[in-house]
Amino acid sequence: MPVATSPGRRGSLLSDPQARAWIFQVVAVAAVVAFGWFLFHNTQANLQHRGITSGFGFLDNAAGFGITQHLIDYSESDSYGRVFWVGLLNTLLVSVIGIILATVLGFVLGIARLSSNWLIRQLATAYIEVFRNIPPLLQIFFWYFAVIGPLPGPRDSLSLGNLIFLNNRGVQMPAPSASEAYGPFMLALLAALVLVVLLSRWARARRLATGERFPVFWSSLALVVAIPGACVLLFGSPVNWSVPELQRFNIRGGWVVIPELVSIVMALAIYTAAFIGETVRSGIQAVSGGQTEAAASLGLRHGQVLRLVVIPQALRVIVPPLTSQYLNLTKNSSLAAAIGYPDMVSLFAGTVLNQTGQAIETMAITMSVYLAISLSISLLMNAYNARIALVER
Amino acid sequence: MNPATPQTASGEKLMIEMIDVNKWYGQFHVLKDINLQVRRGERIVICGPSGSGKSTTIRCINRLEEHQAGKILVEGVELTRDLKQIEAIRSEVGMVFQHFNLFPHLTVLQNCTLAPMWVRKLPRREAEEVAMYYLEKVRIPEQANKYPGQLSGGQQQRVAIARALCMKPKIMLFDEPTSALDPEMVKEVLDTMIALAESGMTMLCVTHEMGFARTVANRVIFMDRGEIVEQADPETFFHHPQNERTRLFLGQILY
User: H or E stretch including B20?
Assistant: First the structure.
């Protein structure tokens, strides 16, 4: 025993790997705990020094400031809690519209990049190279200051048939509001949609059973137009339109889309679409040419080759990077604060923070909101991805 | 059937006729005045060094490649730019590729029923019956519900043959069907092709399997540098080749 342990004893405890591991871990844990305690204590002390009480009680206090765009009722006397919901909805509004526009535009761009038409291909390439290489914040400024800013004032609005007005206060358009015939109309529409679903199921079953086709698209279209149409003839229009009217200094009535919203949505959709376009192009190109050849050599038409063979395989490559583009767009919507669009960041991490001084709480709430939105998008897209994923092996 | 179908002097119908077909890739002249007649039930093997235009020749027959001069008639119908006609011809001409090109997102059965259902408009039940019939012919009915990625190369190629047969084609084109296979899987694919030949199918096969050419082909064609250099029955072709280039090629591949 003395012989065996002598080399170990010669060095200190530090040369024994197991003891070393323990020591380092204990030191690391102690350091982290100490740092955490320091942060907590320091914050407590500072808050006390400035007379700020921590906690979420401030959410019930009256906000006392106006907000240019609120999707739910809001007035200055409402609480900070209400401001939270206004900001959240405004952020979601930008994200949802942005994601939809960017996806549509992106798919068009991706397919255009692979077009056999030289001009279309070059235009798509130029678009992508320009818009994905300029910082999104600059693009937002471009739309806000360079495109919408110089538009004429309300009196000299650019108008489309005196229904839609475009001016430096944004876009003003007719707003629908429900009339008495709204209920019956929605019922008729619902009935038509149910019929369409039943019809397409029946047509599919019949196609599988007998091989015969039924013009599902056209008959569905007829159903969706005819049934609610008949309802309109019977009960009158389901909505009353509030049409914006040009008055002496201003335009009254209708829906007003504020210039900040127009700028941020345009900028983010156009910026993100450039990335989505590249994702879609690479997804389609990732499907080998052999697949197209094999499908074509069986006599399938070009459209069928795309729909039945190429796109199902391309989607599996497209969806994961598409998810991160959606996340990018959502997070980039916080840049809206730079032009004063009342989103989560500018309202909550801006005005509310300044007014209440509750930096920790407001930042925590704002960051949690983005985390929650992003995780929800990830979850949804992962579920979709799992559905279409390759079952190859 | 078709009154316009051209006939040979002996009155047999021609399945494929290529008349002075030429094709260029840019400056490169891939096919030079290709003339080829294929009668019903004929089994033709095309061989030649790589880059000689063998694959391009058969890919022109179902318009995977476009020829720039000359005429190609399939069952008397000329291949033009008319898409409808190209699709009609493709649905009558089966093709098997070197790399199988099975659809990885569909099961073996779905691979086989896709075209019959969408092109021939067969009901699913019927398409599945046809598919199972041919999967049994290529001896892998038990794999019907697996995905291509779960099969060996030889099995995948047999599925590819079954997939083409499900369209009940009148002509089968094979583009080096065994070149991408491990040696021990070549035989199972060749056996399938021999069985197909015995059933009377018109076959055009680009291959380096000279054993297959000897036992199955009625005619062997040798191509080099975009030309048909020599064509003859297998006996004459292998034992009494006329052209110097043919002799050189055979000397290299028949050790």
Answer: strand B14-25
Q: Which residues contact A176 (CB under 8 A, 6 or more apart)?
A: A239, A240, A241, A242
Kindly state whether residue B243 falls inside one of the protein's structural domains: yes
Domain total in chain B: 1
pLDDT digits (tens, 9 = 90+) for A366-390: 999 999 999 999 999 888 888 877 6
Beta-strand relationship, B43-47 and A245-246? unpaired
Kindly list the residues from chain A whose CB atom is less than 8 angstroms away from the CB atom of residue B93: 297
The ipTM estimated for the assembled molecules is 0.90
Whether residue B179 is contained in a domain is answered as yes
Q: Within a domain: residue B108?
A: yes
Residues of B in contact with A392 (CB under 8 A): 104-105, 147-150
Tokens of A60: 């019930």
Residues sharing a CB contact under 8 Å with residue B163, sequence separation 6 or more, in sequence order? A298, B102, B111, B112, B115
Token readout for A354 is: 């300044």
Task: Show me where the domains of chain A are located.
Answer: 182-235
Residue-range definition of the domain harbouring residue B66: 14-252
Global confidence as pTM: 0.74
CATH code at B158?
Answer: 3.40.50.300
Write the CB contacts of B35 (distance below 8 Å, at least 6 apart in sequence). B18, B19, B20, B21, B228
Is residue B116 in a domain? Answer: yes
- Cβ contacts of A290 on chain B, cutoff 8 Å: 97, 99, 101
Portion 157-216 of B in contact with A at CB < 8 A: 160, 163-164, 167
Shortest Cα distance from A296 to chain B (angstroms)? 7
Helical (H) or strand (E) element with A159: strand A158-160
Q: Exposure of B162 by Cβ count < 10 A (0-12 exposed, 13-18 middle, 19+ buried)?
A: buried
For residue range A39-97, list pLDDT tens digits in order. 988 888 888 887 777 778 888 888 888 888 888 888 888 889 899 999 999 999 999 99
Closest Cα in chain B, distance from residue A161 (Å): 44
